[in-house]
Amino acid sequence: MSRGLINVNLKQLEIFRAIVLSGSFTKAVALTELSQPALSQQLANLERQLQTPLIVRSKKTSIELTPAGEYWLARSTELLSKLESALTTHFDLFVDQGFVVKFGTTPSLQGRFDELISGAAITIPQIKSLNIQSYLDSRHVADALAAHRINLGIASLGSLEEQKSSLHTVHLYDDKIVWAVPASIPFDDVIATIMSRKNVGNHPGLDRFVTLGQVPPWHAKSAGWFRDKLPFAQPFFSSATHHSAVQIAAAGHATCHTPMTLIPNLSESVRNRLRYFDIGEIARQVCLAYPKHLQSIRPFVEFTNRVHEIVHAEIVRSPRFVVLEPENSALEYRK
User: Fold this and answer.
1) In degrees, to the nearest 5, what angle opens at C-alpha 148 toward C-alphas 308 and 70?
2) Looking at domain 3-80, which of 2.40.40.10, 1.10.10.10, 2.60.120.200, 1.10.8.100 is its CATH number?
3) From the CB of residue 239, how many other CB atoms can be counted at a distance below 10 Å?
4) DSSP strand E in 183-273: where?
């Protein structure tokens, strides 16, 4: 076949990319809404046009690319991104004359950021509407951005690494790991317990701590802190979410670790029954992320800049903790 007769189209590249990103033909069925035979046929047609295999045929369940496959995965990402950029610009400028922001983040971030994002959105006249969605964790936010279900997300930087070639990320702030302690335990006893590694006052709530069933990326830091500071405490409870963990702590049954950002999202009844201490560790780098092609849409960039300004003013600059015992690195949350 001569080069002049090659007929490769964007649909073939889109299907090839979906197969690779999903990790299997079976999963790509849900992503593309095509049957598995149709996917195989489209891939075979693409390989025939390019005169070389793109995927290694083997008994392995995972997708393995040939060198040509690696090359065309990168090229397909570039080409499809450029097409989406052109279409987005076209509809924003000539059809809709405005754009829709589809925002997604995690439950531990959502309550606070819903307020800040909505405040930024109403300052940009070109925004037609703001849709807010919640995802289980930062990895799901990254997947939603990759699948174009949302065009703006706030998530941990680590979960966005796999999509970094197609996403523009802006660091917002470092989210601290906070130790939540029942307020019924005297503050002096808490500090004495940390200093002595013994349960001063024999408070049952200090003998137990809550772990998460879905292990967070900073689990090792958390586990190491409990082993060092509270060697007598046991991981008695396991919880599915940070919200549930702090509720157990608020009831006086245990202590737990949680991201700092979660605290303003708690109900007043829960928040007031706890004290909060900074353990000197970072839970995650919180980032704003959106597809790179949206950098060409001036109102969208103005909007994200406004979000960054508001977050910096409301979260980064605002004092959330006051130092009580500097030598112990113990910081209590200011209500």
Assistant:
1) 105
2) 1.10.10.10
3) 19
4) 208-212, 234-239, 255-259
Distance, in Å, from the CA atom of 226 to the CA atom of 331, rounded to the nearest integer, reads 17
Crossing angle of the two packed helices 10-22 and 36-50, in degrees rounded to 10: 120
Q: Do domains 88-173+285-316 and 175-284+321-333 have the same CATH topology?
A: yes
CA–CA separation, 113 and 154 (whole Å): 9
Rounded to the nearest 5 degrees, what angle is found at the Cα of 289, between the Cα atoms of 105 and 293? 130
Q: Report pTM.
A: 0.63
pLDDT digit string (tens) for the chain, length 335 residues: 555 567 888 889 989 998 888 888 888 887 788 888 998 899 999 999 999 999 998 877 778 999 999 999 989 988 888 888 778 777 766 776 678 899 999 887 777 778 888 989 999 888 888 999 988 888 889 888 887 889 999 998 988 888 888 899 999 888 888 899 999 999 999 999 999 999 999 999 999 999 987 777 788 889 999 999 999 999 999 998 888 999 999 999 999 999 888 887 788 899 889 998 988 888 889 999 998 888 888 888 999 999 988 887 777 654 444 333 434 444 444 43
Burial 72-99 (b: 16+ CB within 10 A, else e): bbeebbebbeeeebeebeeebeeeeeeb
List the chain domain ranges: 3-80, 88-173+285-316, 175-284+321-333
The torsion region of residue 23 among left (phi > 0), alpha (psi -120 to 50) and beta comes to: left
Span 175-284+321-333 CATH architecture: 3-Layer(aba) Sandwich (3.40)
* Domain 88-173+285-316, CATH class in plain words: alpha beta
> Is the distance from CB of 50 to CB of 69 less than 8 angstroms?
no
Quickly list H helices, 128-175: 138-146, 157-160
Element (H, E) at 29: helix 25-32
Which residue has 């070389």 as its token pair?
A: 52
